[in-house]
Amino acid sequence: MRAPTPLFSLVELEATALFVHRTVPPTPQYAWPLLAKRTGCEVWVKHENHTPTCAFKVRGGIVYMDSLKRSLAKVTGVISATRGNHGQSIAFSASRAGIPATIFVPRGNSADQNAAMRAFGASVIEFGRDFDEALAECHRVAREKDLHFISPFNRDQVRGVATYALELLRAIADLDTVYVPIGMGSGICGLITARDPSRPQN
After folding, report:
1. Is the separation of the CB atoms in 160 and 60 below 8 Å?
2. What are the backbone angles phi and psi of residue 143, rounded to the nearest 5°?
3. What is the pLDDT of residues 50-62, one digit of tens each?
4. Which pLDDT value is given to residue 2?
5. CB proximity list for 193: less than 8 A, separation 6 or greater
6. Do the beta carbons of residue 142 and residue 149 sit within 8 Å?
7. If you average pLDDT over residues 63-69, what whole number do you get?
8. How far, rounded to the nearest angstrom, does the alpha carbon of residue 9 sit from its chain's CA centroid?
9. What is the spatial distance between Cα 106 and Cα 134, in angstroms, rounded to a whole number?
10. Cα 124 to the chain's mean position, in Å?
């Protein structure tokens, strides 16, 4: 059985990390003694809360927006749906790229997340009872206003997100297990793609 084709090469990822680090310096990883005492083993924590949006997602937004601008596509604005971190990533990155951003969230979404997205310059629209309803309305408005829709999972965003994994894997030798929170999957896919070429034995 043939191994699946990776989303990007190690060379591409290394170049992406250099680009991301212009905006988001490498985040620290610490081994906390109390965690070690509680778990009975050495535990390292990668502090992505040290990014401008307090989450790893911003790395992907930076890379996506750069690719979009390089494509020379005529984009009057970008639009997406989120519950928070993806929206902050798009709001932050679109603002830096000089592109208007519209973010749909469900009613009752985190007030802090909404405020952060607005602070980064996005227009935040609350719609629907849940994420699916907000997403459906987002797609409708994207078609109606000819806005560029950004999915929370795509190659460029995974490539950007994977830079956190490259930092971790190169900073800490001989990790036995890495725990990754999973939403849409960019974090875990970024980790696996970074791990395989840089640590073929795992």
Report:
1. yes
2. -70, -45
3. 999 999 999 999 9
4. 66
5. 6, 7, 8, 13, 158, 162, 165
6. yes
7. 96
8. 18
9. 5
10. 19
Type of residue at 12: E
Higher pLDDT, 202 or 192: 192
Q: Say if residues 93 and 64 touch (Cβ distance below 8 Å).
A: yes
pLDDT value, residue 183: 86
Look at the pTM and tell me if it is higher than 0.85.
Answer: yes
Judged by DSSP in three states, 181 sits in: coil
DSSP labels, 24-79: SPPPPEEE-HHHHHHHTS--EEE-GGGSTTSSTHHHHHHHHHHHHHHTT---S-EE
Largest CA-CA distance found in the chain, in angstroms, rounded: 56
Q: Which domains does the chain have, with CATH numbers?
A: 10-55+155-198 (3.40.50.1100), 57-149 (3.40.50.1100)
90-124: pLDDT as tens digits? 999 999 999 999 999 999 999 999 999 999 999 99
Q: How many CB atoms lie within 10 A of CB 84?
A: 20
Residue showing tokens 């690719």: 67
Tell whether the model's pLDDT for residue 3 goes beyond 80. no
